[in-house]
Fold this protein.
Amino acid sequence: MSWINRVRNALPFIPKKETSTETLWHKCPACAEMIFIKEWEENQSVCPRCDHHGRIGPMARFEQILDAGFILLPTPQVKEDPLKFRDSKRYPDRIKAARSATGDQDALINARGAIDDVPVVLGVQNFAFMGGSMGMGVGAAFIQGVNDAIAHKCPYVIFTAAGGARMQEGILSLMQMPRATVAIQKLHAACLPYIVVLTDPTTGGVTASYAMLGDIQIAEPNALIGFAGQRVIENTIREKLPEGFQRAEYLLDHGMLDMVVHRHALREKLAQVMDYLTPRAAA
């Protein structure tokens, strides 16, 4: 031990340096500004400098959108490793790690509640759970959300965020696309609205199925929305694509979306849209 350290340890009036594991700052991925975590969360995970909309999980979304007192629907149980898949890790190990990191059972969680007193069943995909990938669990949760909306005669609203189908489940993950389509038809047969809010990113088989089948298509600003990646498309067609062609604003200009809504205004806009579309009880 050096002389200076011995002297410092012997002096009682020098306070010991305390460390904290609490994260106080968030670095915006768009503008690289450092923002206090508290300020970031109070602003609904939107950068106060550049207006970048950060990715958020189901519980944060439920609390932002739904009235107080909402109820989480139980996660449907499915066979978790139907193909006994293994790459660099066993598939069950990947699921276990995702559950530990997010606290969710799978990539799609449903809640029943209300938005400004308008009843709704709300589904939220979590990109942090294996890239929000669509597997049997997500398909079962989507059908659960639709059936619950039909049972309670209210709209089904889903916030999508996904990298596509879950490769570890092979063809079984792709089967969720027609299953979701049939569920949406059941919702329409019950004369109930199906509203989609596309968040960053929504790609692959999710875009090719239930993410683009809404009665109303809404997106958050600058959300990445597409099927294949830009480089894959450019290499296939051998042409340079327009700047930002897979961003929400471009899709709105070309008729694939009905509106792009800032996160701060989403709750009010959803309440307004549902009020227009929800059947009213006879007086």
